[in-house]
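anyone else get weird line breaks when pasting these?? whatever heres mine. first is seq + tokens for prot A
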Amino acid sequence: MNRIPRRELVRKGWHVLPGILGAPIIIFTPKWVTLVVVWFFAFLYTLQHLKLLRGWKFTVPIADLSYRTMAREDERDNFLGSFLLWVTMAIICTIFPKIAALSALWVSTFGDCFNAIAGQLLGGPRIPWNRRKTFIGSATMFAVSLLVLWASHRVLELDPSPAILMGVAMVATLLESLPIPSAYDEFTVPFSTALLIWLAYGGALLSPAW
């Protein structure tokens, strides 16, 4: 069993924070409140990303703290991952129904987090098409995604279809395993989850209310 560096655990703590704090906003508040909150954070993280790219010298509240705490080595001059997560979640909350938004949030935050922890902690055989990923990590991503998809349905008092949940979890796991820069997972995983949930259940797009 491998040891996970403290900084990586702190990074994962920041990574799941939107899933913990954002879920009650999606579940219990009107859609306009959710949109105000999520677009506010999308603005902050867009500003932080642009600041790093352009070398601007000012502090962005919240986003600057999370950058100093969780940025990877390849994010010295950008904050692409967090920027993509917040902008993608803002778009999802604007376009899709509540179940799609909550499912996307939880799969992206919890699924991806426990995937990385399990993969780094337990190691094991590598995925042939992406040597940075392990089968154990991907299996964990699938299991956690399945669990949070079920939980999102139960929280909203919906009856989940096991086949739909397994299909969505499988697609999210596959997309997360692709040999692309890890920051792009913050778009592909939540958006595909929201889109597939909407395709499965339907519902109004761009509705002013949940």
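and prot B, same format (seq, then tokens)
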Amino acid sequence: MELGARASQSARHSYTGDESSRPGLTPVAPRRVGFEELISVLIAEHVEIRKELARLKGSVEGQEFSSATEILGELDRLFRQHIADEEAQVLRLLIEAYGVRGADEAIVIFRQHRPIYQLMEEVKKLASLSSEELALNEASLRDMLEKHTQAEESRVFPKALSTYRERRGKLNL
């Protein structure tokens, strides 16, 4: 592994709290697709996450806790892959291009992955316990994920795509 890759990997782990390195969580390998396709996939997954959260809200309101648990399992799978791709590829590109300081905005936004995931785990536990607490935490999870995906789509992804295209253009000269 070259020095730049090691430095960006180290920065990703220390600045975002990379979920794949936490004990008890199965690491997920980043997908091997082109960068522009990856950004399209990540945005499409934001749409899918919103749909799943709407289904989760319906299940919670209808007190269909087994359905809520199933939906949370799907969100867990989707979110783990999503985090792996964002941190291994999008954040890596930004850190390599701009350094840690220049990638600060993405780092701050990607740091939200850990509290989102922790809240998702809490909601999963509550699905079998307390309907009142489940409803409150489900609403918090939905709100947190909505703000997070908006920040990625409006600030991080456009910068990453622009950087990727600029760097690709320089290599083709």
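btw re prot B: Residues 3-172 form a domain with the A middle domain of Talin 1 fold (CATH 1.20.1420). Confidence is low (pLDDT under 50) at residues 1-24.
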